[in-house]
Amino acid sequence: MSVKVSPLIRLTDSVQYVKGIGPVRAEALQEVGVSTVEDLLYYFPRRYLDRRSVSPIRDLRIGEQATVLGRVTGKGMKYARRRKFFQVTIGDDGGTLNCVWFRGFEWIQDRFQVGDRVAVHGKVEFYKQMQMVHPDFDLMDQDEDPLHTGKIVPLYPGTAGLKATGLDSRRFRRVIRDLWERLAPIPDLFTDAFRHQQSLPALEESLQQIHAPDDDSSYGQAAHRLKFDEHFFLQLLMAVRRRSLDALPGRKFPELGPLVRQIYRSLPYRLTNAQVRVMREIRGDFQAGRMMNRLLQGDVGSGKTVLALLAAAIVVGKQAQVAVMAPTEILAGQHYRAFTALCANVDLSLALLTGSTPKEERQTILQKLRDGELSLVIGTHALIQKDVAFKDLALMIVDEQHRFGVVQRGQLMEKGVYPHVLAMTATPIPRTLAITYHGDMDISVLDELPGNRAGVITTVIQPDQLDETYQLMRREVELGHQCFLVYPVITESEKGDLKAASAGYAHLKKKVFPDIGMGFLHGRMKGPDKEQVMTAFLARETHILIATTVIEVGIDVPNATVMVVENAERFGLTQLHQLRGRIGRGSLKGRCVLIQRGGGDESAQRLAILERTSDGFEIADQDLKLRGHGELFGARQHGYEKMRMADLANDGPIIRVARQAAFALIRHDPNLDQREHRPLKQVLIDKYRQQLDFVTIS
Ligand code: ADP
Ligand code: MG
Q1: In angstroms, what is the span from residue 450 Cα to ligand 1's centroid?
Q2: In angstroms, rounded to a whole number, what is the distance separating the alpha carbons of residues 46 and 36?
Q3: DSSP secondary structure code for residue 550 in this structure
Q4: CA–CA gap between residue 5 and residue 180 (Å, rounded)
Q5: Does the structure show a pLDDT above 90 at 36?
Q6: Which of 213, 269, 506, 533 could form an SS bridge with 519, CB 3.0 to 4.6 Å?
Q7: 88 has which bridge partners?
Q8: For residue 446, which atom of ligand 1 is closest to its CA?
Q9: Is the pLDDT confidence value at 698 over 70?
Q10: What average pLDDT does the segment 106-128 reach?
């Protein structure tokens, strides 16, 4: 290390003051989320080039990446094939190599002098003789510490904005190297004892190594440390939340009560073993005297609704109130109908509250909720409006909970005094994800479908097989069954997608199925219009329902047997799995047809997974491996996209260790008050404040 001069740079300083950056580049860096020195250090290379070994020119092979060390034997502008270029010839003991530039002449001409010792790196090509086009290079005489030669060198993720300011990988390497010279020592977040116990290298060293690894093993250790940090803080967050939740008093509902028994007796089926087991877990929470915070995971059709009702009935039986929140009006309406049907012979007052509930009716419902006259309300976001108040909200059930943000759930919770929370999701979540995203919750899994399911056969087809699909639909309709056809409108604001769906609908109606009643459902329709289309389909007035992904979750139409998905390659596997879960639910065998219109072999292979298996967990695992966690489970809304090093698909072992360490730490020092834990607490407060929501840490 050289002697440190002038004031040291600190992690919190603006990146603008880093040597080689300045205001213009600082602005470009904003776009990639880098504003402080710390951000810059956490802007990790996207990959590395191994330039540790130098090849003699005579051993070069065409097509290979290579590093060559030699002296400049000639340079000058040349013409060939009507193009002007600048050429530098380099020689070593055994041969010569041409280096060629097609632009930036002025700058490049001045770099090289005949006789200079240089190293060049690039792909070996052949044009009249061995050459490299636009090689990266080091001038060995001028640069006492060649940045780009004799080592593993990093390549940084570039953007147009960065490139425009000349901030390429070459420049990045220099900036980072110079930065270390002036950077104040980086304090470690962990104690030496902890690092030793977990075999973690120091943070400063890890950051240095990640930008300029000495070798594979130091890279590996650095990456491990940086991954560990990311997982550790998430788990620490989970541990803190968990502790706060456990400290909250939870109302006890120890008995089942007569209401539950009545509902239970009138069920048209027997609960599956899995349903019975989960019911027992829920009852355990009601008896424990602490707040329930449970996530119920169950594949589509596994029968979550009836469990929600039974849980609700336990609470309602004690004159307390229950709110059930669903992400869409359609789903809320369906829950309402399902609950009503299951409670046909039972004295239980329930209401549906959505954005399209008429004003007067809404007022009445609100009044009854305030008075406690109404025990059970099912609804959408309408439930979290300011003027909705409960007399005694003791349980909230959130369906498809990943579609809600932490904030929305929090808003509903605030309407009660520590209400129990039962969240439900049909998205099977691989274990590593579950403990990362829901590590503060208890998890119940419904891993068994009711035995009366006929199942679904899935086929992936190309557009030229469409006729067969239409024939299949027609046949099923003639048998009295119903069909779904889904178009990808990934975000309902995409005008182009919606147009394609409307055009598809118009075409089918006019040309293919003019004699068959069809409905069209999309997310931009008004509540009552949607309801009308859905009702017509449920009443079998229409036989084919063309829809966008609004029908993705939860819709239950036992008479539907066919699910056709257009442009299936644009969907995630989990999403497709949920779509086909809409059919084959009763005694009728379902047929799912996935139309692939692009994406090539890669998509074909991906979609083939659905032909092969119907195991939601396996599909979720594959989806995670293929698409990364960012795409899944609303990672964005949780703010987890900030993870830089972590890779949920492969970090299972690290996640488990980090979780253990984090939970042990919080058991030991619940409020992180011990002196050596202050830095951890500070990071938690600085970086994870939003996700701490109702948690008390001060
Ligand atoms: P999901 O878990 O996807 O929300 P639902 O609760 O909508 O599933 O249940 C799907 C269908 O299965 C419903 O029609 C429901 O009546 C039925 N069902 C639920 N439990 C059972 C069971 N134990 N046996 C038979 N059918 C069941
Ligand atoms: Mg459901």
Answers
A1: 7
A2: 20
A3: G
A4: 12
A5: yes
A6: 533
A7: 75, 99
A8: 2
A9: no
A10: 89
269, 307, 330, 422: residue to mutate for ligand 1 pocket, most atoms within 8 A of CB: 269
Report residue 39's pLDDT band, with 50, 70 and 90 as the boundaries.
very high
- What's the rounded Cα separation, in Å, for the pair 427 and 401? 10
Q: What is the pLDDT of residue 636?
A: 37
Please state, in angstroms and rounded to a whole number, the distance separating the CA atoms of residues 374 and 388. Answer: 13
What average pLDDT does range 8-28 have in this prediction? 93
What is the Cα–Cα distance from 252 to 68, expressed in whole angstroms? Answer: 75
Between the alpha carbon of residue 451 and those of residues 440, 584, 590, the distances in Å are 32, 12, 15
Q: CA-CA distance, 80 to 76, in Å (whole number)?
A: 13
621-638 pLDDT per residue, tens: 787 777 655 444 433 334
pTM above 0.85, yes or no: no
Select the more confidently predicted residue: 7 or 487.
Answer: 487
Average pLDDT taken over every residue of the chain? 87
Pocket of ligand 1 (CB under 6 A): 269-272, 275, 298, 300-306, 426, 450, 452, 554, 556, 585
d(CA 580, CA 167): 48
Q: Are 301 and 455 in contact (CB under 8 A)?
A: no
What is the distance in A from the centroid of ligand 1 to the CA of 433? Answer: 26
- Please name the residue whose Cα sits nearest to atom 20 of ligand 1: 303
Query: Which ligand has the minimum distance to the alpha carbon of residue 446?
Result: 1
pLDDT tens-digit map of 294-308:
999 888 788 999 999
Q: What is the mean pLDDT of the segment spanning 442-451?
A: 87
Q: Are 457 and 563 in contact (CB under 8 A)?
A: no
pLDDT at 693: 53
| Sign of the alpha-carbon dihedral angle for 410, 416, 417, 421 | negative
- Per-residue pLDDT tens digits for 65-92: 888 989 999 999 998 888 899 999 999 9
Which of 273, 305, 328 for mutating ligand 1's site (highest number of atoms within 8 Å of CB)? 305
- How much is the average pLDDT of 350-367? 95
| Ligand index nearest the alpha carbon of residue 451 | 1
Q: Which atom of ligand 1 is nearest to the CA of 399?
A: 4
CB 254 within 8 A of CB 334: no
Identify the helix (H) or strand (E) that includes residue 514.
none
What domains sit in the chain, N to C, each tagged with a CATH number?
1-46+160-184 (1.10.150), 49-155 (2.40.50.140), 258-288+302-425 (3.40.50.300), 456-613 (3.40.50.300)
Alpha carbons 154 and 144: distance in angstroms, whole number: 19
Burial level of 156, CB count in 10 A (0-12/13-18/19+)? buried
CA of 299 from ligand 2 middle (Å) equals 9
Distance 267 CA to ligand 1 centre (A): 11
Please report the pLDDT score of residue 628 as a whole number: 59
Look up residue 230 and give its two tokens: 């990311």
Q: Quick check: helix, strand or coil at residue 262?
A: helix
Residues that place a CB less than 5 A from ion ligand 2: 554
Using a 10 angstrom Cβ sphere, with 0-12 exposed, 13-18 middle and 19 or more buried, the burial of residue 387 is: exposed
The whole-number pLDDT of residue 415 equals 83
